[in-house]
Design a protein that fits this description.
This protein is of the alpha/beta class. The chain is about 30% helix and about 20% strand. It is built from 10 helices and 13 strands. Keywords: Hydrolase.
Length: about 280
């Protein structure tokens, strides 16, 4: 059963909600179960909507190296939006379609501004080709960093093609720092988070919402033809843009408050529950 937070708050041309043509969904905490797996029910639901001619767009904060095999398993014919919107990746052809990286000078400015606010921050960065980090970041990471990723020098000295800058703090939980850090680089970069222990920084104007909006518009559709699923603040731009936004029950309080509808948790196949009930035609 889909748990309704409220009735659909957006109105379209009359009272009828247009038929959904695009399904855009986050991965971790939303489509994927807590163990990182895709359930058989969720996989079947995604394949079913694609057989009906709808587009499925995966939108994640993760890098390309994480999504290649997963996208193939889900049979997605649409792109994979990686690095919170900075990279559009064609998994079927294993190629980057579009990349919106931070300018080198901007990367240096952002690091300096964030360190002025929180001197103990440790940084890492993603490009479309590699992940690198400062020793302090590796020591704080909740997951093993790739072999050869740790640098002796500061991240500020290597900055070409950075699609996502990451920062951790020795305190662990950074929830009380997010607003202050975002204010430090307002207008310079986009700051968000998908966990309480990590700050994620992209180029100004880059987020999941803008990347999915471009894909949808290029195919002649609009926000009202799009349903979006998410669980964390880095999904808010996408959820705010989509015609129908759905939060999973395990979502962050900000996401639950902003979404049009709430479904069951990621471990209870919340995305599949909604997809199975989508209207099939006018």
């Amino acid at each position: 059963m889909v748990h309704q937070l409220r009735t659909i708050s957006r109105t379209f041309d009359g009272s009828r909600v247009p038929v959904v043509q695009v399904v855009a969904t986050d991965l971790d905490g939303t489509l994927l179960r807590s163990d990182g797996a895709v359930s058989a029910r969720t996989r079947a639901a995604l394949h079913a909507v694609q057989r009906e001619g709808r587009w499925v767009v995966l939108a994640t904060g993760r890098p390309i190296r994480f999504v290649h095999r997963l996208a193939a398993d889900l049979g997605g014919q649409g792109p994979v939006i990686c690095a919170n919107g900075a990279v559009v990746y064609d998994a079927a052809r294993d190629r980057v379609v579009e990349e919106r990286a931070l300018r080198p000078t901007t990367t240096r400015e952002v690091i300096a501004a964030l360190r002025a606010q929180e001197p103990d921050l440790a940084f890492a960065w993603e490009t479309t080709r590699e992940f690198r980090c400062e020793p302090g970041f590796a020591a704080l990471a909740e997951w093993p960093v790739p072999d050869g990723a740790v640098l002796d020098e500061s991240v500020r000295d290597t900055h070409d093609g950075v699609v996502k800058l990451l920062a951790r703090h020795p305190a662990g939980d950074m929830s009380s720092m997010f607003d202050g850090l975002a204010a430090q680089v307002d207008g310079l970069a986009t700051v968000t988070h998908s966990t309480a222990t990590l700050v994620e920084v992209s180029a100004a104007g880059v987020d999941k919402g803008t990347a999915v909006a471009q894909f949808v518009a290029e195919r002649g559709f609009a926000p009202e033809h799009t349903i979006a699923f998410g669980d964390m603040p880095n999904d808010l731009a996408l959820l705010d843009w989509a015609g129908w936004s759905v939060a999973v029950a395990n979502a962050h309080p900000l996401v639950r408050a902003r979404a049009d509808t709430m479904t069951a948790s990621n471990d209870e196949d919340g995305v599949a529950l909604v997809l199975e009930g989508l209207p099939r035609g006018p």
